[in-house]
Amino acid sequence: MSASVTRVTIGKTLVAIPAWNEELSIADVVVKVREHQPQADILVVDDGSSDATAERAEAAGAQVVVLPFNVGVGGAMRTAFLYAQRHGYAGVVQVDADGQHDPADLDRLIDGLTDADIVVGTRFHPESMYFVGGPRRWAMVLLSKALSRMNRGTISDPTSGFRSAGPKAIGLFAAEYPADYLGDTVGSLAIAIRSGLSVHEAPVTMYFRQTGRPSKNAVWSALYLGRATLAIMATSLKRGTPRTDAA
User: Fewer CB within 10 Å of terminal CB in the chain, N or C?
Assistant: First the structure.
């Protein structure tokens, strides 16, 4: 049976921005999010930064939670989901702190929660100029097929970190959210689908990083995606298989 979602009207929305040493871009990101979503609250989770990320985020008008050491995007986002659950938010949107995500797309991700539990912003659509090549792209295609099979609906960009979560997803992720590398993208989708949540996608724009550099290089990412693909393909093959208990 495919996952179902009750059509709801999303209330209070929290824009969650995990940030690690992003002092050069965080204030600009907060200001742009505020311009496009003046009614939303903004939470920056400072993931153990050694620079002035927290101070600049707060000065720009964001609420700030400071973690004592770096736990990765997954750990930072679990903190955001716990915060959202405890403060009664009905929607959470994850936005990168490096300026790659276009706040103009926030409406699309938030509005999509009226029909889905999770909305993933896909960078692969006819109007997009985003490009990934080589082994990383091959791994992403296989991973997309595996997750789409599990979801019984297309997930063309499973590693996109620009996404939204509704009430059911907030409750699930506050209790169970993977902290390993790319767990906040690939792993969280697998958990959500296995838990019966519905996942849709919406087209978004992806820019180059304003400052800094990615935490992992392309080779590391491709190797991880390959391993994740095999694990999720194995899980998807088990779905729909009748359980046979020993007598």
Answer: C
Residue 246's pLDDT is what? 39
Q: Distance between alpha carbon 101 and the CA centroid of its chain, in Å? A: 12
Helix (H) or strand (E) holding 94: strand 91-94
Mean pLDDT within 155-179 = 95
User: Contact at 8 Å (CB) between 219 and 29?
Assistant: no
CA distances 90 to 83, 86, 174, Å, are 12, 11, 13
Residue that has been written with the tokens 């973690």 in this structure:
67
pTM of this structure: 0.82
- Here the CATH number for the domain that contains residue 182 is 3.90.550.10
Using alpha carbons, select from 239, 240, 5 the residue that is nearest to residue 117: 5
The structural domain count of the chain equals 1
Which domain range does residue 172 map to? 13-130+153-209
